Amino acid sequence: MHRSAYSPVQPLRETCRRTRLDKTLHALAQQGHSMLNLEDFDLEQIADAMQQGDSMGLGYYLNIVSGEIVVNGFDDEECNPDPEELADKKYVFIERVESYESYQHMEDFTLSLPAGKARAGLEQALVRSKPFRHFKDALDNYQEERKAWFGFRDAAMRRVVIRWLASIEAIEDPDPNGTSESQPEL
To answer: Which superkingdom is the protein from (predicted)?
Structure first.
């Protein structure tokens, strides 16, 4: 029997997640909850949650009714939300941004720079082992580019957050046809 390299697990997980989310949103709409606006969410805080993810054993959840972020996983149980509360359909787990997407942000930034020492140094950092560490170290040598990187990364993460909020139908999709690369600026 020939085995394909294609794994159906990820699409199935996505389909199951999507079905649960559709049911949740339908139930919330039935209860009179309306969709929030983009301004109702702290995009920077959601981006931070996506970048930290479960790296410290913490789980981040977004309340799609209020826009509030709830953190779970503290050593002190009194600081954690009630597990039954998190099981409520209005909470959506905030998944960590994939490393390939973070790498793509670094690569896009590097390619946006004019030819020169900074661009060459960052390109070299990206092809070495441990590119995240070497990229950060290389940026320390180029202060103007370092400052520009943080603005670039923040804008890229803002786009990631907006796409995610639209994908979970917490907001109206600002680009339903997928034709625009630009996203609303805050």
So the answer is: Bacteria
